[in-house]
Design goal:
Blueprint: H1 11-17, H2 19-29, H3 41-49, E1 52-57, H4 59-76, E2 80-84, H5 85-90, E3 99-105, H6 111-122, E4 126-131, H7 137-141, E5 144-147, H8 160-179, H9 188-203, H10 206-217, E6 222-227, H11 230-246, E7 249-254, E8 271-276, H12 282-294, E9 298-304, E10 314-316, H13 324-342
Parallel strand pairs: 1-2, 1-3, 3-4, 4-5, 6-7, 6-8, 8-9, 9-10
Helix pairs in contact: 2-8, 2-9, 3-8, 4-8, 4-11, 8-13, 9-13, 10-13, 11-13
The chain binds 6-O-phosphono-alpha-D-glucopyranose.
Function: Catalyzes the first step in hexosamine metabolism, converting fructose-6P into glucosamine-6P using glutamine as a nitrogen source.
EC number: 2.6.1.16
Active site: 355 (for fru-6p isomerization activity)
């Protein structure tokens, strides 16, 4: 590969560290000459016309789509459904009158996503692809493209593409809101700048995060991630990262669902990583932590400045509450990285996985 690791032992670590820079590149790439965030007016017009947005993706890109749904619904006030491409292909939901499709794909080559794109284009619908690769298949075959500007991602476990996808989705949501005449809730350029700085702080906290990975994940066979609202979605991604590269069985789910099944799996010492970055569910997620702790779990609370308590293991810097996934995912990426490292796994090339899956 012509992309060098430089002084980094693994591409994954390099790509995690590139995230603050990617945020700044995205802020620049999506600014007009007046310094305002801007998206091609054909794209915002297509969103404005749509009565419902269907996000279709796989893997980590699907997890970014879940966060994207919140952003588009909260800011642009358009209902959004998020679908796993391989399910959508064979079990198409009843579509709205005026759907708009958004395909999220780092590579732009994923066969499952492409199959849905071909189908919906045949049905006469418009599609937007959000991808890291200009000229990729999903970009060429869609009506519109938004680029991630994340630079090549080599490690199989996706990191900087996930945060880039969320950042681009936030800009898309915010600019569409403006086009729809919805009053601006916050200054997104400013808030994304705060995110970039917060990411830097996290990238400088590797030693502390490595200790957490070592302490919780060196010997365990499983690990749970819990969260509510946006934290739930980030937990899904944290669990996927951990599974992919450390082979620890990991599951992410909504805190409130614990009592409906998963709590049966909690044993003495089971690691439970809980995210607490959302003010409106801060008390309830902490209640869930108490429930698992009472059954012997080894809890690791990752909270955000302003919401922290003495029991928390790691505290991320404060960012806008809609943008927390951009930074709460960073310690989870690093936890997965160090867990894999301590378990002697091949971080950049995990078994059975491919960077880009071009078969259905
Ligand atoms: C593969 C990769 C994942 C990725 C997924 C979707 O399974 O290993 O990291 O999230 O494909 O890829 P895409 O390029 O469509 O985002």
């Amino acid at each position: 590969s012509d992309i060098e690791k430089g002084t980094y032992p693994h591409y994954m670590l390099k790509e995690i560290d590139e995230q603050p820079l990617v945020m700044r590149k995205i802020i620049q790439a999506y600014q007009d000459i007046n310094g305002e965030l801007a998206i091609d007016s054909d794209i915002t017009a297509a969103l404005k016309e749509a009565d419902r947005v269907y996000i279709v993706a796989c893997g980590t890109s699907y997890h970014a789509g879940l966060v994207g749904k919140q952003l588009i619904e909260k800011l642009a006030k358009i209902p959004v459904e998020v679908h796993v491409a391989s399910e959508f292909s064979y079990n198409m939901p009843l579509l709205s009158e005026k759907p708009l499709f958004i395909f999220i794909s780092q590579s732009g080559e994923t066969a499952d996503s492409r199959s849905v794109l071909v189908n919906v284009k045949n049905l006469g619908y418009k599609a937007l692809t959000i991808t890291n690769v200009a000229g990729s298949t999903l970009s060429r075959e869609a009506d519109y493209t938004l680029l991630l500007h994340a630079g090549p991602e080599i490690a199989v476990a996706s990191t900087k593409a996930y945060t880039a996808q969320i950042a681009v989705l936030s800009i898309l949501a915010s600019v569409t809101a403006k086009v729809k005449g919805i009053a601006e809730e916050f200054d997104l350029i400013h808030e994304l700048g705060i995110v970039a700085n917060a990411m830097e702080v996290l990238c400088d906290s590797k030693e502390e995060i490595e200790k957490i990975a070592y302490e919780y994940l060196t010997v365990t066979r499983n690990c749970f991630f819990i969260g509510r609202s946006l934290d739930n979605y980030v937990g899904l991604e944290g669990a996927l990262k951990l599974k992919e590269i450390s082979y620890i069985q990991a599951e992410g789910f909504a805190g409130g669902e614990l009592k409906h099944g998963t709590i049966a799996l909690i044993e003495e010492g089971t690691p439970v990583i809980a995210l607490a970055t959302q003010k409106n569910v801060n008390l309830s997620i902490r209640g869930n932590v108490k429930e698992v702790t009472a059954r012997g779990a080894n809890p690791c609370i990752i909270s955000m400045k302003g919401l922290e308590t003495d029991e928390d293991r790691f505290i991320i810097p404060e960012v806008h509450e809609l943008l927390t996934p951009l930074i709460s995912v960073v310690p989870l990426q690093l936890i997965a990285y160090y867990a894999a490292l301590h378990r002697d796994c091949d971080v950049d090339k995990p078994r059975n996985l491919a960077k880009s899956v071009t078969v259905e």
